[in-house]
Amino acid sequence: MEYMLRIASVLVLVSLPLIGLGLAVVSGVLEYQVALVMTNSRVGAAIAVSMLESLKIVTIVLYSLGHTSTQRLTRTLTNGLRISLLLLSMTATTLFIGQLMDRPNLDALRAEARREIDVRFDYLLQQERDAFAKRKAHLDSRLVEEEFRRYPDGRYRGPRYSEYSQELDTLRTRHIRRLAEISTRREMENADAMSQEYANDDRASNRAIASWLFLLKDAMGWQVRPSQLAMTIGALFGFTLELAIYLSFLYFGAMHHRPLKLLIQQKALRGSVRASENNVDAAHRPRPAHKPDRAAHSGRKPPFYTHTRIVP
Questions:
Q1: Residue 3: its pLDDT value, please?
Q2: What averages of pLDDT result for each successive group of 10 residues across the chain (312 residues)?
Q3: Burial group, residue 107, by CB count within 10 angstroms (0-12, 13-18, 19+)
Q4: According to a count of CB atoms within 10 Å of the terminal CB, is the N or C end of the chain lower?
């Protein structure tokens, strides 16, 4: 039984950091998508998300190991940083999941509307060009007739040449203005199509979201918008993900807290024992004998002050 408990504890000890790292990678990928939209830089978004996720894991593990400062301000800032990182990750996850679930077919509907607008206005532009080309060809032929018509008095160009020439200039001006009007209407309708939200259009909604909304309305009587349901599901997913990451590394650090504390106590105890042993050895160590006077045994004459006698 004890052997099985040891195996289970080892498996838990190994699986907790792996689970936490896997969930942290998932959270980092979701944060990267949001950061990429905000920064528009793949390298910057990847570096920022990597640093934030690493810092989040380090703060959780250090907190679980008991590495907290004794200063109140430092401890408060550290706790605030850990909570802020968790909330930031949860917010990014909520935004990304909500965006995926809220009207996923919105871009497709907008693109379809733009294609219909383009087809319709391409037809109008072609009609205008054909009508202009037909009228212009008629006026050009009349101008040629009037230009090369010769009268008995030797004059060229008939009396209606100026009339046809002026009519051709008017036709060109009207054609250019008509093309500009059609292009302006096309741009306005395209902009209006791109700004359409299709909030009440079932074609833009997720099928699962539409089914859930129908069930909530039919069974509970709740009138919920698709965006509200999508954000709620995203918030629950983000909260669960960050809570799982937090508890994984918290339990992992807690399992190492007691062994680490015992190891630190053992090192401190060994240091105190060594210090006391050194003090005892120093107290019982024999003192060195008095060194004899080298001058007395060397045959040399001692200094003058050794022969000076003090008179009482």
A1: 67
A2: 68 78 89 86 89 86 67 77 86 82 79 91 92 89 76 63 84 92 91 80 72 79 77 86 86 65 55 61 55 52 46 41
A3: exposed
A4: C
